[in-house]
């Protein structure tokens, strides 16, 4: 069990940390509080504290001074810095004191518990005494890369403010003129296969392996820093920094490094990777532009000609957009097949359509990604219209293909087609199960409506619109269940009712005609004759003769 001390002069923040921390899950049995740096130092001297969370700006004794004292007096104490200020002096002292992590105000639950988990991992590693390296360096190794990653992501997302965050620029080499920055985006095309067979589903270990390979051969002049992309679990972002040189050199070295890295990943782990490389820039804020070019280069790689790992930098000049055939026009046919339970025919329609892409000049990775997302949305719309949207299908909005239990690996066009086919199988199965349970009650409802409203103008479109069934399919179902088409059944009910009404001599044929929904007496008489081969009047005579 561990003991934690919160040192902050703001009571609301201390209270928030107390509430948001997953103390029990982290193995923390005691959380103490100090209202300023001076009180915090006294408590550090009076208690055996494992971890302290320190605000950088406090009265009496500020965070920087407290860190310097703690470094000297409590070498085993782990520290997490809390700050709402972009003061590089604070950051420099925090780095010197080897803090575990940095938290910016206001503190949120996710970042807080992530930082606490890092600290607890370090404490556990120390207690187990696995290695001297872990004891002395793991906190610094864990915190600085994460800080750099956050900075790079904020630049890529265009939320980084140069002036207010100027203090952090030296951490990424952006404080010196003459440096150039380029971005690469690496996508693992067989991620799930490699993670299962080579890393036993250990995602963190796989990430470590990839980033370790990407960082190889970095030196004081050229650096490659990589991390997992928040955009996709199968993508990694690589930031290349070339110090004090020309943009042409940065472009050459970045391309060379990326090609060597994807080759090494294939050789060591069997990873098939596609990579895009952006243009180098001298301004660190242009990392965002380089990232967009790298993404465009990656998305533009031709899936039809993809044989193995590849690196592309064609994103330097974005290719002109082309009109690509869309599945939207084929969805009515696919829907009709799914309604009738003919999954094979739906697959045939899909296969005929994908053949157009296969025989085209080019079909890019970006087009493949967009097609998968479009197909899921279109099938989801069909499922919703058919009231066949169980939790399993709704989960795709949160988990993508994983929510459907479908692997998303594809490194060839054939594997891409297989992903589309598996998506169709899942939706077809859910739609079939849903419709199988509803068809019986739907047919009963339609029959009951006809039995009670036979005198109205009944149109089949009333039922197709209400139950989202095609006309042909509904007619087939109804006749298979009752032996009559819908129009035939309406006519049968009317004629059966006509016989009953004609047995009452007090009713005029005109009245009977109106009761049955015929506004024209002659039209009723003609329909009756066609059905029974005698007129209503002749039928009455036959009834009268039968009674004598």
Automatic annotation (TrEMBL):
It holds the Pfam family HTH_18. Gene3D superfamilies: 3.40.50.2300, Homeodomain-like. This is DNA-binding response regulator. SUPFAM superfamilies: CheY-like, Homeodomain-like. InterPro entries: CheY-like_superfamily (IPR011006), Homeodomain-like_sf (IPR009057), HTH_AraC (IPR018060), HTH_AraC-typ_CS (IPR018062), Sig_transdc_resp-reg_receiver (IPR001789), Tscrpt_reg_AraC-type_HTH (IPR020449). Residues 3-120 form the Response regulatory domain. Residues 444-542 form the HTH araC/xylS-type domain. Keywords: DNA-binding, Phosphoprotein, Transcription, Transcription regulation. CDD domains: REC_YesN-like (cd17536). GO terms for molecular function: DNA binding. The modification 4-aspartylphosphate is found at residue 55. PROSITE patterns: HTH_ARAC_FAMILY_1, HTH_ARAC_FAMILY_2, RESPONSE_REGULATORY.
């Amino acid at each position: 069990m561990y003991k934690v001390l919160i040192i902050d002069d703001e009571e609301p923040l201390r209270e928030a940390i107390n509430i948001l921390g997953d103390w029990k899950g982290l193995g923390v049995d005691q959380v103490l509080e100090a209202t300023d740096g001076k009180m915090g130092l006294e408590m550090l001297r009076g208690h055996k504290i494992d971890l302290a969370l320190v605000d950088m700006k406090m009265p009496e004794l500020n965070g920087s001074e407290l860190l310097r004292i703690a470094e000297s007096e409590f070498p085993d104490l782990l520290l997490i810095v809390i700050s709402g200020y972009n003061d590089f002096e604070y950051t420099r002292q925090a780095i010197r004191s080897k803090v575990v992590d940095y938290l910016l105000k206001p503190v949120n639950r996710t970042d807080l518990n992530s930082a606490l988990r890092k600290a607890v991992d370090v404490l556990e590693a120390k207690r187990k005494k696995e290695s001297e390296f872990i004891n002395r360096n793991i906190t610094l190794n864990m915190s600085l890369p994460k800080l750099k990653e956050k900075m790079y992501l904020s630049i890529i997302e265009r939320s980084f403010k140069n002036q207010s965050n100027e203090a952090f620029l030296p951490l990424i080499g952006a404080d010196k003129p003459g440096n150039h920055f380029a971005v690469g985006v690496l996508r693992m095309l067989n991620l799930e296969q490699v993670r299962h067979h080579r890393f036993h589903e250990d995602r963190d270990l796989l990430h470590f392996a990839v980033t370790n390979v990407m960082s190889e051969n970095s030196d004081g002049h050229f650096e490659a820093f990589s991390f997992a992309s928040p955009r996709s679990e199968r993508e990694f972002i690589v930031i290349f920094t070339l110090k004090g040189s020309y943009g042409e050199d940065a472009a050459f070295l970045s391309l060379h490094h990326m090609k060597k890295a994807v080759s090494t990943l294939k050789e060591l782990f069997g990873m098939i990777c596609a990579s895009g490389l952006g243009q180098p820039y001298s301004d660190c804020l242009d990392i965002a532009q380089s990232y967009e070019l790298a993404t465009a280069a990656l998305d533009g790689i031709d899936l039809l000609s993809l044989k193995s790992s590849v690196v592309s930098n064609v994103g330097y000049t974005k290719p002109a957009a082309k009109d690509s055939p869309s599945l939207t026009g084929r969805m009515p046919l696919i829907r009709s097949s799914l309604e009738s339970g003919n999954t094979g025919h739906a697959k045939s329609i899909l296969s005929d359509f994908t053949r157009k892409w296969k025989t085209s000049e080019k079909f890019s990775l970006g087009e493949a990604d967009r097609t998968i997302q479009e197909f899921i949305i279109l099938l989801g719309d069909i499922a919703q219209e058919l009231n066949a949207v169980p939790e399993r299908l709704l989960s795709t909005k949160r988990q993508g293909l994983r929510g459907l239990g479908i692997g998303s690996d594809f490194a060839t066009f054939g594997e891409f087609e297989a992903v589309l086919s598996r998506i169709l199988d899942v939706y077809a199965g859910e739609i079939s199960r849903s419709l199988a349970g509803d068809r019986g009650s739907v047919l009963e409802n339609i029959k009951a409506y006809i039995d009670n409203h036979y005198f109205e103008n009944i149109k089949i479109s009333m039922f197709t619109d209400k139950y989202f069934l095609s006309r042909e399919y509904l007619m087939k179902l109804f006749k298979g269940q009752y032996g009559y088409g819908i129009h035939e059944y309406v006519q049968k009910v009317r004629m059966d009712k006509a016989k009953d009404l004609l047995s009452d001599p007090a009713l005029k044929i005109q009245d009977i005609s109106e009761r049955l929904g015929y506004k024209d007496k002659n039209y009723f008489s003609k329909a009756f004759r066609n059905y029974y081969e005698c007129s209503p009047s002749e039928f009455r005579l036959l009834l009268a003769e039968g009674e004598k």
